[in-house]
Amino acid sequence: MDALADLGLNPSANSSEIREAWRHIAFHTHPDHKEGDSSGFSRAKAAYDFLRKEGLATKGGATAGPPQPRRARLKKRIIELPQEDVAACEAMLNPGQALSHMNAQTGIQPKCGSGVADHVPDAVGCYGRHLTYFVTTPVNQGANRVALPTTVLTSARHTTAEILSFQSSDTGAGEVVIPDTIRERKFPGAKSVRIRFDADQAIRDQFWLAG
């Protein structure tokens, strides 16, 4: 089978060998780890995806007899937040300010003279019940506030948002992981919550590749 050959395996390879070969190739040929030609990674990924769809890369697959029912895999999706959700978050950070005064290009609303940088996400990545909020603005050195819609995983008609504050010693891109004690109280249904700052398209691409 060509797909097995692309992973450096013989036709009798079992599911464990297929998964192990993919992990080895993905680590050593991933574009983030290897400069230049990444065709080896692309070819191996296509082969592994094919074998997985055929049920040959799952436990009990390959040479272990008829394909067994596969467990449902967690689905990844990125939700672009509707403007009303973004506006609700901005209003929490800047009560009384007109929407026309907001910086639509960056989504950031620093409070004049306060030294606090305010942030609002424009999208959220969902991997099952694991949430990653994408904020286009960079972390500010010093005090930061971010308003997050917390009802992403619920069927609530109206957006509920929370303001989280933190201090940073650096400026630029970064990730903040919400502590479990806050997540359990503020983000119903979520198993983990992360915030990615200065999140451009490359950061979103990393979200799809991870896991």
How would you describe this structure in keywords?
three-stranded mixed sheet; elongated; 211 residues; alpha/beta; five-stranded mixed sheet; 6 helices
Account of the 3D structure:
Helix content is 29%, strand content 21%. It is α/β, with parallel strands linked by helices and 211 residues long. It has a five-stranded mixed beta sheet with strand order 1-3-4-8-7, covered by helices on one side. Strands 2-5-6 form a three-stranded mixed beta sheet. The radius of gyration is 22 Å and the shape is elongated. Residues 62-69 and 98-113 have low confidence and may be disordered.
Number of helical elements = 6
Average of the residue pLDDT scores: 79
Distance between the termini: 27 Å
**Strand content bin:** 15-25%
Query: Which stretches are low in confidence, meaning pLDDT under 50 for 5 or more residues running?
Result: 62-69, 98-113
Largest sheet: 5 strands, mixed
Rg result: 22 Å
In one word, what is the shape? elongated
Helix/strand class: alpha/beta
Run of helices and strands = HHHEHEEEEEEHEH
> Can you list the strand order of the major beta sheet?
1-3-4-8-7
Q: How helical, in percent, are the residues?
A: 25-40%
Number of strands: 8
